[in-house]
Design a protein that fits this description.
Shape of chain B: elongated
Number of strands of chain B: 11
Mean pLDDT of chain A: 80
Structural class of chain B: alpha+beta
Largest sheet of chain A: 6 strands, mixed
Low-confidence stretches of chain B: 1-21, 194-280
Helix content of chain A: 25-40%
Number of helices of chain B: 15
Helix content of chain B: 40-55%
Oligomer: heterodimer
Distance between the termini of chain B: 33 Å
Low-confidence stretches of chain A: 1-13, 270-284
Largest sheet of chain B: 6 strands, mixed, barrel
Strand order of the largest sheet of chain A: 6-7-8-3-9-10
Structural class of chain A: alpha/beta
Strand content of chain A: 15-25%
Number of helices of chain A: 9
Largest interface: A-B, 54 and 48 residues
Chain lengths: ~280, ~500
């Protein structure tokens, strides 16, 4: 982490993301309950919590794929709830790179074509650049293979290549290593580390203590409520606070809720808490 | 944001370019690549959309080819059997028979061709004697008549100067063969008004055809195939009874019939000076012909199976030489390239011009059975077409709906990657247009094969490949595919990325 600090200090001045009393309610279920969270540019944040804790809901809201029931989300100074679906699509393709747990590659396109799809919707297709991205995740020689001909780890790496192809400011990763073996997990984490070093902000939703511990900062959700926050990188914390950053907090009435100005620590979840079933999603 | 330089290209990994790239990948190529992938790497249900389009196109093309082509061919064939419009002079009672003069022939022809393309032929009929027997002789322009009556079966030559063409029945009864000579004489009295010397030829000969006129016709229908045209009440035989010069065989240059004035101008009974700019032909020949007869060569025998088989055809020059005078035509036959109401309208327009002194009548050679077949075919065509269109529509629509629901995750993913509803729509419309195009192409070829088989086995007709119809068939099936997929594609473009990517 030491070598990231300089970059981090420079980047932490501006807040990339601001969540202000954000809730998502489905009927009686509070999937996300009054979350307040600021993330500066360049920060690597891990969101941990058990299944059903609201991580994916948070992910969808941050990824401009869902809108909160109440509260406000500001990304790069833009208030997302004011944007129409087409403007949200613009934000998605320009600012955000997505990595999913279940890989989500287009099954009838080859690895390189899957990477180029992101370029296609973003701006201009550049095969050379797509090949470089695949090369970066170590899959240059598998570029012409269909997803069905790739292993789970390889598919996830294609996803990472696709997420980084448009140089997003923020990469959102939902259980990126949930279905990977240790070797592939290490490759993906190394890639994240490289992206972080370049100044890309990362928000990684995970069950995995190892993955979470790579982040500078971790927050924990439980039943949609923020229950804890901890920093793995004190320098980053200091820089964050100097830039005016406040600890995350929840306005929820839940007794576990972290509602004060002082972060409540928590125990890292263990590897055993992983609930990913390891199955790749089949697209029939 | 979109315009920011890309950082990823300068970071990490190798920077050497991948080798072996040919055409540079552009957004258009990427669009086609995605389309190709969706169509050819998936298969499965895509083939159902193609099959639906194919069946639709095949049925429609087959039906259209048969139901449009067969009646068209029948119409064409009917026209090959001769005229469908006959123009005759209006004969005033008591007036002499002077025929339709060439200027009026041109005028009438202009009126007809103004509405539709047409071919025409003129006929001048005279009653002549061969071996004392009375027969009908027609002066014609061989080329015109040949053009009009492709079905006439001629053994030998068409008439030319000095050579006649004799009807089969007449040739048989007179024992004539091509190359023989025949002596024909002309008596003005035979052609005088009230003369009945044509004996059957005039009465039955030209009316025996299997046709009926459409205007006020009583419908003669003895089904003699391919007979000459004949109108019901103003037919050529009738005209023979009008010629009115009682001067009989006075011989010489009395010009009993023709040289009298036009109907409105002169009394038939009083010989008048030549009109129409015609003049008596060489008097000595005419006189000779009327007294001793004129010897002509039999150039050919015509066999039509109709009344033509009773007639002697000669060139205009010969009939003028024989009779000793020129006059207009008794009949103009038109083969007009139209039918039904359009043809009737042409006839009416001529009849409305009463000053022309001619009468036009449509002649149809279609038997009622043919008409019924055509009407039935066309009704069947429309009924089945509508059913097939609906079925194709439902088939393609359902398949596209199933493809869309199968690809919900992928659509969600594309949207998560920044695809707009419009670009998702464009991809699916292009995909279904392709299915329609492919199905349309295969279906058209299959439809043509079926139509050909059907035409050969049921209608005993050959069927050419109609490129316009094929183009229309392919286009229609493409359009139907696109239109049928509007609903499924709209549903696809409304898919919410969050719903799809949410953990299930």
């Amino acid at each position: 982490m030491e070598d990231h600090e300089t970059v981090q200090e420079e980047k932490s001045g501006a807040m990339l993301l601001d969540l202000d009393h954000v809730s998502k309610i489905y009927g009686d279920l509070h999937a996300l309950d009054d979350l307040n969270l600021s993330i500066p540019q360049g920060q690597w944040l891990a969101v941990v919590g058990s299944s059903g804790s609201g991580k994916t809901t948070l992910m969808n809201i941050l990824g401009c794929m869902d809108t909160p029931s109440s509260g406000s989300v500001r990304l790069e100074g833009r208030t997302l709830e004011d944007l129409n679906p087409s403007q949200l699509a613009d934000v998605r393709k320009n600012v955000i790179g997505l990595v999913f747990q279940k890989f989500y590659l287009v099954p009838h396109l080859t690895a390189i074509e899957n990477v180029m799809v992101a370029q296609y919707y973003h701006s201009v297709v550049d095969e050379e650049q797509a090949m470089q991205a695949l090369d970066r995740v170590g899959l240059a020689d598998r570029a012409r293979h269909l997803p069905s001909q790739l292993s789970g780890g390889e598919q996830q790496r294609v996803c990472v290549a696709r997420a980084l192809i448009n140089d997003p400011k923020l990469i959102l990763a939902d259980e990126p290593t949930g279905n990977l073996d240790e070797t592939n997990e290490k490759i993906v984490l190394d890639l994240f580390r490289q992206l972080h070093d370049q100044g890309t902000s990362l928000i990684v939703v995970t069950h995995d203590a190892l993955v979470a511990s790579c982040a500078q900062r971790e927050i924990m959700l439980n039943h949609g409520v923020l229950v804890g926050e901890q920093w793995n990188d004190e320098d980053a914390r200091r820089a964050y606070e100097e830039a005016g950053g406040r600890p995350a907090f929840s306005g929820s009435a839940g007794k576990e809720a972290q509602s004060g100005d002082v972060p409540v620590g928590f125990q890292d979840p263990t590897k055993a808490a992983k609930t990913g079933d390891g199955n790749r999603m089949e697209w029939q | 944001m979109a315009g920011e330089p890309k950082r990823g290209s300068t970071t990490g990994g190798r920077s050497d370019k991948p080798a072996g790239r040919h055409a540079p990948m552009t957004n258009t190529r990427m669009f086609l690549t995605m389309l190709f992938g969706a169509i050819f790497r998936r298969r499965g249900r895509a083939s159902m959309a193609v099959v639906a389009s194919m069946v639709g196109a095949a049925t429609l093309f087959c039906l259209a080819a048969v139901c449009l082509e067969v009646p068209r061919q029948m119409n064409q064939e009917m026209r090959a059997y001769g005229a469908n419009l006959v123009v005759t002079p209006i004969q005033q009672p008591g007036q002499s028979r002077q025929g339709i003069d060439p200027a009026m022939v041109s005028h009438t022809t202009e009126m007809v061709t103004a509405k539709a393309s047409a071919k025409h032929a003129t006929y001048r009929y005279e009653s002549v004697r061969v071996n004392a027997g009375s027969h009908m002789m027609a002066g014609i322009d061989a080329d015109q008549v040949h053009q009009l009556n492709h079905h006439w079966n001629v053994d030998g030559q068409w008439p030319k100067d000095g050579s006649v063409m004799v009807g089969r029945d007449l040739a048989d009864s007179l024992g004539l063969k091509p190359g023989r000579r025949i002596t024909i004489s002309y008596r003005a009295s035979d052609n005088a008004e009230g003369a009945t010397g044509t004996e059957g030829v005039s009465g039955a000969g030209r009316t025996g055809g299997g046709q009926s006129t459409q205007e006020g016709s009583t419908g003669r229908s003895n089904h003699v195939h391919g007979s000459a045209t004949m109108s019901d009440d103003a037919g050529r035989p009738g005209q023979l009874h009008h010629a009115g010069n009682p001067s009989g065989q006075s011989g010489s240059q009395t010009q009993p019939v023709v040289l009298t004035a036009r109907p409105a101008q002169a009394d038939a009974s009083s010989p008048a000076g030549p009109t129409m700019g015609s003049a008596p032909v060489d008097g000595s020949i005419a006189q000779d012909a009327q007294e001793k007869g004129m010897e002509l060569r039999v150039g050919g025998i015509v066999d039509t199976g109709g009344s033509e088989d009773q007639i002697i055809y000669s060139s205009m020059h010969d009939i003028e030489a024989l009779t000793g005078f020129k006059r207009g035509s008794d009949v103009i036959e038109y083969s007009v390239n139209t039918m039904g109401p359009n043809l009737t309208a042409i006839a009416r327009s001529i009849n409305d011009m009463t000053s022309m002194g001619v009468k036009a009548q449509t002649v149809t050679r279609i038997t009622s059975g043919d008409t019924h077949t055509i009407a039935m075919l066309q009704t069947l065509f429309w009924l089945v077409s509508i059913v097939v269109l609906v079925l194709t529509f439902v088939g393609v629509g359902t398949t596209m709906a199933s493809i869309v629901s199968q690809r919900r995750s992928e659509i969600g993913l594309r949207k998560a990657l920044g695809a707009t509803s419009g670009s998702i729509g464009a991809e699916f419309y292009a995909e279904s247009a392709f299915y329609g195009l492919l199905g349309g192409l295969i279906g058209t070829v299959l439809g043509y094969i079926f139509a050909r088989l059907l035409c050969t086995s049921v209608f005993q007709r050959s069927l050419g490949f109609n490129w316009w119809l094929a183009l229309a068939s392919v286009l229609l099936s493409t359009i139907i595919s696109v239109v049928a997929s509007i609903r499924p594609v709209r549903r696809a473009s409304r898919i919410d990325p969050a719903l799809v990517l949410r953990e299930e």
